[in-house]
Amino acid sequence: MDETPSRVILADDDVLLREGLASLLERAGFEVAGQAGDASELLALVREHHPDLAVIDIRMPPGHTTEGVEAAKVIRAELPDVGILLLSAHIEVDQAMELLAAGQRVGYLLKSRVTAVSDFVETLERIVHGGSVVDPSLVAELINARRRHDPLEELTQREREVLALMAEGRSNAGIAHKLWITEGTVEKHVRSIMSRMRLPETEDDHRRVLAVLAFLDAR
């Protein structure tokens, strides 16, 4: 018996991008329940359709600042089971940190990542099923912007790579596959990272992402 397709609301004032995403998602097996060009329309559609996921541009009319993030916070408060993927053309994770700290069914990607169709679809599915995803370039930007006395300076290059993949929401097995190392080696790196950063060890992916976000937010 076929699974019911995940229902998605798309919110972006760029009509061409929005239509392109709608076409992409429909081909990937999602049901696009509605499209919005601003935050007010987005909230109305989400309240009406209760989708599995809302894909939201951070900057939307009227001010093109943080309207998408503010709408996402309302959605999370009213309908916490709705997954949220924030999209942005720029690295502006500070505005979204509170939402990302929710730890479940939330993600943040740069729009340039949408060109990698298979990765993008995988990201959406991961969020729908309760995961969290943060674009690795956002993590790298925050790492590079850390203050001089930074615990991250104690990490090896490989540990930094593992940390970035942890922030993407990948499991130890997923990290091992990505870096071409054994899962046992990944486990050793994770233990080392948690120890150096004074964070509790956990096998829960959500808490791993939460820990990374919380630490980066303390910069």
From TrEMBL:
Entry-linked InterPro entries: CheY-like_superfamily, NreC/VraR/RcsB-like_REC, Sig_transdc_resp-reg_C-effctor, Sig_transdc_resp-reg_receiver, Tscrpt_reg_LuxR_C, WalR-like
Tree of life domain: Bacteria
Q: Positions modified as 4-aspartylphosphate? A: D57
Question: What is this protein's record name?
Answer: Response regulator transcription factor
One of its GO biological process terms is: phosphorelay signal transduction system
Q: Which UniProt keywords apply?
A: DNA-binding, Phosphoprotein, Transcription, Transcription regulation
Per the record, a Pfam family? Response_reg
Query: Where does the HTH luxR-type domain lie?
Result: 148-219
MF terms from GO for this chain are:
DNA binding
Q: Residues in domain Response regulatory? A: 7-126
